Amino acid sequence: MEGAAEKKALFLQRTLRSGQRVRYDGSIVILGDVNPGAEVVASGDIIILGALRGVAHAGATGDPTALVAALQLHATQLRIASCIGRRPDGDKASGSPEIARVQDGIVIVNPYLLGA
Amino acid sequence: MPQVIVVTSGKGGVGKTTTTANLGTALAMLNQHVVLIDADIGLRNLDVVLGLENRIVYDLVDVVEGYCRLRQALVRDKQFDNLYLLPAAQTKDKTAVNPEQMTALCQELRQDFDYIMIDCPAGIEQGFKNAIAGAEKAIIVTTPEVAAIRDADRIIGLLEAEGRGDPKLVINRLRPNMVRRGDMLDIIDVIDILAIDLLGVVPEDERVVALTNRGEAAVLQNNSRAGKAYRNIALRITGENVPLMPLAEEEGLWDRLRRAVGLGRH
Ligand SMILES: Nc1ncnc2c1ncn2[C@@H]1O[C@H](COP(=O)(O)OP(=O)(O)OP(=O)(O)O)[C@@H](O)[C@H]1O
Ligand SMILES: [Mg+2]
Fold this sequence. Notes:
heterodimer; A: mainly beta; Pectate Lyase C-like; six-stranded mixed β-sheet; five-stranded mixed β-sheet; about 0% helix; globular; B: alpha/beta; Rossmann fold; 8 strands; disordered C terminus; binds adenosine-5'-triphosphate; binds magnesium ion
């Protein structure tokens, strides 16, 4: 982990339901689902050990290196810093873990490969 | 041990009143002492669905305002002398009652009844808060539609925040043909999102509308599929283990259901 700055993280073990929002100055890790209509906002990274179906905003205070990862990335909308991404209409999530980052000013989603 | 169960949904028109009337009647058929409270003040319906409108003298607001005693406001069912309705006021609105009064009312009804079921109005405002105040259990009714599920999810979150976790789910108006064609969410999709225990699935049944208009409960009809589904749900509420009825779904669906069925006793 050389060079990696230590970040503080909020750990939640629950399902975020429609109308619920979590904001945190740091990273957020949720063991559970984020349902449609729920919102997760972090100044750091967002990691969902479950299905992300709502809105996630990582790097919310302007950090474009922040990432969003989920076991199932079905987010209604993904925001990283000031970049906004959503799946093309009709596009299906893979169902396996994925990770989203900003590359060249756009949000790119890639499979999250263990060990890669 | 009496149970106070609120029937709620968030979204309007998904079948709360139908569910309350049918489960109440089905529980009465099982020899339970049941009172149904219409908490939809200003838009009362439950009396009409039960065919009791013409017997109402006093209502819930009269009780909390002290115009009559609770006993006087209870309307006995046409067929079952162990089934009662506490009607809503039609000429007042939700602010005529507060959560403390509802809690006290439910507390008083516990002395005389096994099941106190509350028909909640749509929405998340005062009427919802009143309806859940005295209840320790909740049944969430949803249809297999994205908007209804979204609202159900919101309601489950609010119930959790009020310390009334562990609500049970009734999926209403399922149309097996549409599910098979992929035009309707299937049960697994719904449970996947809401992640609460499934209490039962009620199929779309056009006879429900006709029966409702006549003030008759579907559970009294042997040939109504919705009625059968509601009778099964009532059995599960009393703690019996009744398998889900097949709704002409693909084989193996029921095996894929991860969650146990049943409201359980504590
Ligand atoms: N399983 C069913 N099959 C067919 N029709 C149904 C079924 N369940 C409910 N309905 C019909 O749907 C309509 C709405 O039902 P109901 O009044 O019970 O909903 P509600 O959730 O109480 O509505 P509101 O939010 O306005 O109080 C009624 O006309 C009812 O007859
Ligand atoms: Mg109603």
